[in-house]
Design a protein that fits this description.
Strand content: under 5%
Number of helices: 14
Distance between the termini: 32 Å
Structural class: mainly alpha
Helix content: 55-70%
Order of helices and strands: HHHHHHHHHHHHHH
Shape: globular
Length: about 300
Amino acid sequence: MSQTFLPPEWFKQLCDPYAVLGISVSADDRQIFKRYHTLAKLLHPDRHTKSSNPDQELATAILSYLINPAYEQLKNRHKRLIAIAMLRSDARVLQQEALSVQNAIAEEITEMSAPQAELFYEEAIACYAEAQYKSLHKFSQVTQQISILNLVYLQLHKPDLFLPQKAVRIIPEVEVKPVELTLSEKTNVKPVLTNYAQRHYQRAIEYVKLANWALAVQELRDAIKLEPNNSDYYALLGLVHLKQKFIGMARVYIRQALKLNPQDSLALKYAPGLKIQPGENTNPKSMAKAVSIAALLSRFSQGKSSQVKC
């Protein structure tokens, strides 16, 4: 198959192999391989035998001429460093304002602290990645948005992304006190109002009963800001995302709830359906405080984001 089968501008996206694979610039070897394996299965010709011939050829071309070269570059650590250096150089040259106006999610990051931006960035990448290859003809559009997001993130944060350093947890190990409240979707038990975080949590429970997901997310987001190590808040937020069919987001927060409290009853209830094994290892980079993620989901669900709906 000739490379000319793909539009010439698509090959420019190889300048950002992270965007082509739909992963963050902080992805490690395991994450890179896992994403590549997922895309290789998704775009394998056998999956498109019942589709029209052009779709089958397009899937094969994307896999052969874009995804495979991107993976070859990122699986080599030296080449990975070169890719990051080139992206960081591009980020310095391009104006922050010019990048932000092209990507509504990128604009959110510019107003955040580094820890907040890291969580938000990882979640945004995951959201884009979920939609990236659902439509092969829109692949380039979504990939461009991921690339812009990468440049903004590199421009504002992580100047020492690949320098040797001791790993630092975003959420420190803490002793989590058992929570007596057992949640269920139809519970009549009200949590004790011990502080403002609990007030937000109580209101979130009421909104869940009313199926008012947007307000429930907002209340839980505020609760997590005040108490970032309470598993109950993450578990309920995971349930809210699950009810909205945001499976990826639900998995993130249920995992975090179990990370903080392996005995969290609500998280344990929904973990099997999300294919989460109790006690499984999780990447703390994608499990930090859930700050401002409601804004991300709102932009996608309302269609105000530049281009992709999760």
